[in-house]
Amino acid sequence: MVSILFVCMGNICRSPIAEGVFRALAEERGLSEALHIDSAGTTNYHAGDKPDPRSIAVCKAEKIDISGQRSRGVTKDDFENFDLIVVMDRTNEANLLKRCPEDYREKIQLFLPYIPNSPLKEMPDPYYGRDEDFEKCLSIAQKAAQGLMDIVEPHLI
């Protein structure tokens, strides 16, 4: 089993979308049983909360249900327990690297480099934006999830 943790700041917008998209892709490819997928935030601001209603709505439009997710913060155990920790931006990457034991630092990677030839390196945070910003976030997450899955899948079979 391969375990992947998606991380943003509050775990209510970007990382829940990424988790939902990647989980849906795993189901589509028949790989759900071979993957442990979760998301978390670098802060606990929204601990226990559902994803932002706009995140839920854009995912629902793609028949992806993230309404059952609940925000949580990254824990010390996450660094050991997950094979890959996928971060949405450099600020959250830096925050994780400060907290991460040296032995696990290579597990932390940015999400968007999984999109081949993408000029984007960081997932834009839609929180203070409009609905269109959440739609853009979903579209980017779908492309990055595809690239990540293409790399992960051969290790599952």
From TrEMBL:
It is an enzyme of class 3 (hydrolase). CDD domains: LMWPTP (cd16343). The active site is at C8, R14, D125. Residues 2-151 form the Phosphotyrosine protein phosphatase I domain. Pfam families: LMWPc. One of its GO terms (molecular function) is protein tyrosine phosphatase activity. The keyword Methyltransferase does not apply. It comes from Temperatibacter marinus. Keywords: Hydrolase, Protein phosphatase. Its EC number is 3.1.3.48. This is protein-tyrosine-phosphatase. InterPro entries: LMW_PTPase, Ptyr_pPase, Ptyr_pPase_sf, Tyr_phospatase_low_mol_wt. Belongs to the low molecular weight phosphotyrosine protein phosphatase family. The keyword Hydrolase applies.
